[in-house]
From TrEMBL:
Keyword Transmembrane helix part of the UniProt annotation: yes
Record protein name field: MFS transporter
Keywords, ordered alphabetically: Membrane, Transmembrane, Transmembrane helix
Source organism of the structure: Telmatobacter sp. DSM 110680
Residue ranges of every copy of the Major facilitator superfamily (MFS) profile domain listed in the record: 34-416
Gene3D superfamilies, per database record: MFS general substrate transporter like domains
Domain of life of the source: Bacteria
Lineage of the species this protein comes from: Bacteria, Pseudomonadati, Acidobacteriota, Terriglobia, Terriglobales
Length: 437
């Protein structure tokens, strides 16, 4: 029989255990001051870019650009981003991440402001291409910067925070972009909707400029040069990493861009409710990314990715079989949330298994493969939907998630006896010639 003292102490012990588990999950205290300086820069960049991209097509619409013209402008931006990736990766290895980040935070707002000043389609296409090249600095430098400012023990948690913040700022950008132009139109007497949107776009660009100050205070060293001595340019682990990541990018770039059309056209959901579904999906992604370190703390990055893919495959399969809008929305939220939880795992694993000197190159190739796979997936999905309907797309996505899970299991080192989170540190990799695992 328990004593009265035991009965009194039991809740205390239970509560202290809960607090201890929460503290072990929330590892913010272990993150360095330099990481939080970078986090501030990333916050303003994500919020400014999110607000800008949310409104820019509406700005073009008010300038009487049609969807074909918008597609050409968007394509030029994507092409510039892809073409700029390799040169940026080379420059990052030579001059360091900080200088490239400063260039990004100066050049991209400047080009963004210039894009609001012209109404000529050829000029818009040219400026979009240059803006895409300037913006390519961010995806190339982002992951190596986070990796260099964290340790093996807190890296996955750091990526989760940055990913979740990026998603959260996207939600804020949508809310701000939907209300501020109308407020300016009423209060300041803006006579044309394009003028109000232009002011917000310029403000969004200036928000990006705020990141210049924290980036200038970062202490990101130039990566040490590694003598190749006949070794290949691309790290062996990167070559194993890219095929699975490419297929996963095909999955993530498939249905999501067409989700609003699916809900409105196929299920008869009103446009207002489609907007609410979008906001709910953003919140689900935000929550899921933050919960990943708690849910998968004991299993490692390798199992995180596989687990996310299995659940995503099941969710998209059930989504395809849903005939009720409420069920479809529920499974869509599960699908989008789980889909984004694999992101920190992919980034953390790649940056952990690549030597510091090779991280910029690895991030550049990851960006190229992801962008091309996502763009091709969206184009192919559109053609498949028109000809065969959404059911085939859902089934293909479910099959591809299974293929990716199998590839991750076979090619990412676990089958060779490599523990998921026993990721070799950068110094250890450098001492062994950066061969990877």
């Amino acid at each position: 029989m328990s004593s009265p003292i035991d009965c009194v102490q039991a809740p205390t012990v239970s509560n202290s255990g809960t607090v201890a588990r929460l503290r072990s999950w929330w590892q913010a205290d272990s993150l360095s001051r330099q990481f939080f300086i970078f986090f501030v820069a990333a916050f303003f960049f994500d919020f400014g870019i999110g607000l800008y991209f949310f409104l820019f097509n509406l700005f073009l619409l008010n300038l009487r650009f049609d969807e074909r013209m918008m597609g050409l402008v968007t394509g030029a931006l994507t092409l510039g981003n892809v073409i700029g990736t390799i040169p940026v990766g080379i420059l990052a290895r030579r001059f360091g991440l900080q200088k490239l980040l400063l260039f990004c935070f100066i050049a991209s707002p400047l080009m963004s402001i210039l894009r609001t000043m012209v109404a000529s389609m050829p000029t818009q296409i040219g400026l979009a291409f240059i803006a895409g090249m300037a913006l390519s600095c961010w995806p190339v430098c982002f992951a190596p910067a986070v990796a260099s400012l964290t340790t093996e023990s807190n890296r996955a948690f750091a990526f989760s925070i940055v990913f979740a913040t990026g998603i959260g700022t996207g939600t804020l950008a949508g809310l701000a972009g939907g209300s501020i132009p109308q407020m300016l139109f009423r209060i300041h007497g803006v006579h044309h909707p394009a003028d109000g949107i232009r002011l917000v776009l310029i403000g969004a660009s200036l928000l990006n400029c705020i990141g210049i100050w924290p980036v200038s205070r970062l202490k990101l060293l130039v990566p040490p040069k590694i003598e190749r001595n006949g070794r290949p340019l691309l790290n062996p682990f990167l070559l194993r990493f890219l095929p699975a990541f490419a297929i996963w990018s095909i999955v993530t770039g498939s249905f999501i861009p067409f989700a609003p059309v699916f809900f409105q056209k196929q299920l008869g959901v009103s446009l207002q409710h489609v907007g609410l579904i979008f906001s709910a999906s953003q919140f689900a992604q935000f929550s899921a990314v933050l919960m990943v370190p708690l849910l998968f703390r004991k299993v490692g990055s390798h199992a995180k990715i596989i687990g996310a893919q299995i659940v995503a495959g099941a969710a998209v399969l059930v989504l395809g079989m849903s005939h009720s809008a409420s069920y479809a929305v529920a499974w869509y939220l599960v699908y989008t949330a789980v889909q984004f939880t694999a992101g920190p795992g992919f980034y953390g694993m790649l940056m952990g298994r690549i030597p510091e000197a090779d991280r910029s190159t690895a991030s550049a190739f990851q960006n190229i493969v992801g962008a091309l796979a996502g763009a091709g997936s969206a184009a192919l999905t559109g053609a498949l939907v028109v000809r065969y309907g959404y059911s085939l797309v859902f089934n293909i996505d479910a099959i591809l998630t299974g293929v990716v899970a199998l590839l991750v299991c076979v090619t990412y080192g676990y089958s060779a006896g490599v523990a998921d989170d026993a990721i070799v540190s950068s110094s250890a990799l450098n001492s062994t010639g950066g061969r990877g695992l």
